[in-house]
Specification:
InterPro entries: HD/PDEase_dom, HD_domain. The protein is an all-alpha fold. The protein has 2 domains: 108 residues, Cyclin A, domain 1, CATH 1.10.472.50; 90 residues, Up-down Bundle (Methane Monooxygenase Hydroxylase, Chain G, domain 1), CATH 1.20.58.1910. The chain is built from 10 helices and no strands. The structure holds adenosine-5'-diphosphate and nickel (II) ion (NI). The site of nickel (II) ion has 5 residues, from α2.
Length: 217
């Protein structure tokens, strides 16, 4: 099977898998990450097939929606790639990407590194910042029935992963706890440049938000 056929089949498979996914991790998230990843890949010496498969399969079964089981996604991805006759070298690389990509990796020990993982991770992080990142954050906060903002509740920069998951903090706090920290975690030069611009956009948004909140505009 040609590479193009494999990628097209993977796209169909992922669309089907994510047919009922929630807004933050739907097919359009995957499509944006895929495009970001291709853009970043152009500036790097990498295996594009691995980048494409990694981007397409990285959220195939997000653990938040599978009772915390982080092994579902990699298993589903492996089964699919095996059924398409993909080589074990590529399969195991893609699985490593899925296993290591999440922001969670920020705190847990990273056990694997490759330029392809760096690229897909940057591409995923870019989708959490900028205009799309703002929209996703408020979408997620609404889904969890959280306040947008509460001046009495300060951001908490020292939560464990478990505390963070349980936290009912307002969505604005998420910017300080996570989103504004992402630009300094970017791996690639292209990723850093795009993140810088999106970071500034978020800061502008926050300044405007507080001004409107205070009736200063
Ligand atoms: P990823 O897909 O990169 O692993 P997550 O699953 O943690 O990211 O989050 C998906 C989206 O939901 C991201 O845009 C993220 O910013 C947003 N999100 C996650 N947790 C919160 C929260 N506590 N408040 C607001 N938005 C959140
Ligand atoms: Ni993602």
């Amino acid at each position: 099977m040609s590479n193009l056929d494999l990628i097209n089949k993977t796209i169909l498979f992922v669309k089907e898998q994510l047919a009922n996914a929630e807004g933050g991790h739907d097919w359009f998230h995957i499509q944006r990450v895929y495009k970001n990843a291709l853009l970043i890949a152009r500036g790097e010496n990498c295996d594009e097939t691995v980048v494409k498969l990694g981007a397409l399969l990285h959220d195939i079964a997000d653990s938040k929606f599978h009772a915390g089981d982080e092994t579902v996604g990699p298993k589903v991805a492996r089964k699919f790639l095996e059924s398409e006759g993909v080589s074990e070298t590529i399969i195991s690389h893609v699985i490593q990407i899925i296993d290591n990509i999440s922001f969670k990796g920020g705190k847990t020990e990273k056990t694997f590194s490759s330029i392809e993982l760096d690229i897909v991770q940057d591409a995923d992080r870019l989708d959490a910042i900028g205009a799309i990142g703002i929209a996703r954050a408020f979408n997620y906060g609404g889904f969890k029935n959280r306040a947008m903002y509460d001046p009495q509740i300060a951001p908490n920069l020292h939560m464990s992963k478990e505390e963070y998951k349980k936290s009912q903090a307002p969505t604005i706090n998420h910017f300080y706890e996570k989103l504004l920290l992402l630009k300094d975690k970017m791996n690639t030069q292209t990723g850093k440049e795009i993140a810088e611009q999106r970071h500034q956009y978020m800061q502008g948004f926050l300044a405007q938000f507080y001004a409107e909140w205070d009736g200063e505009l």
